[in-house]
Amino acid sequence: MRKFLRWLNISDENIAKLSLEALKTTEQESKELRSIIPSFSDRALPLDAEPIVNFLDDIPEKLIPVIEYMSARGLYLEDYPFYWTPRTGFNNRLIIPFLYQEKIVGYTARSVGADKSKYLSEQQPGYVFNLDRQSQDRAFVIVCEGPFDAISIDGCAILGAEVTDSQDWLLKQLHREIVFVPDRDREGAKSVERVLEYGWSVSMPEWPPGVKDVNDAVVKLGRVAALWLIVQAKESYALKVRLRAMNWFKEIK
Description:
Oligomer: single chain
Strand content: 15-25%
Structural class: alpha/beta
CATH topology of the largest domain: Dna Topoisomerase Vi A Subunit, Chain: A, domain 2
CATH class of the largest domain: Alpha Beta
Number of domains: 2
Strand order of the largest sheet: 7-6-8-9-10
Largest sheet: 5 strands, mixed
Mean pLDDT: 91
Distance between the termini: 59 Å
Order of helices and strands: HHEHEEEEEHEHEHEHHEH
Radius of gyration: 23 Å
Low-confidence stretches: none
């Protein structure tokens, strides 16, 4: 580039100034990238938490409602390494560890009773749930809001309705089309605009009446049918997504 600029009769002084500005720009871009790339440290699960399969030879009474809850949500022990602990305060909760590069970096514990707090969570910024299980032979990565949605179809979850730059960066390292399936509620409607800014595709399937999210659809239709509807409804053209969203969310009060 220096040679090219000299051929254009640009003075060495101006070339030096341009080089300095280029270095500043590169340094700034590098800082911005470092701020986006997340890092996750190890986290401990609640005390005495173990995989549920470890309790099956002699199932504790307190574990039975947790297993019944899993059944009601169409979840199976082979779907994910679900945990449980007999400790008071967590013995009525289904524990879902957050894994990253095969290490536990957090968790969420879902109450199966009438607790005011449905979820007790330890979550690090920028985390994407179920990223480790996205094999290289898949054409898409399907992204949902909640962990149960993701487990139902072996996709990923952003653990809420808001996606961050770090989550976008992590998902794009998979180098495949990202298909977001929002929950059918007010927060889901807001999240559609955000993911379009990142260039994601969006799927708003023709769910049956009463279906709010992916897990509801799997319980009602089965996994194969739910996945088929998601893939059939995916759209990458922003205008079409916005027009579809106007109709898909119109019944939300």
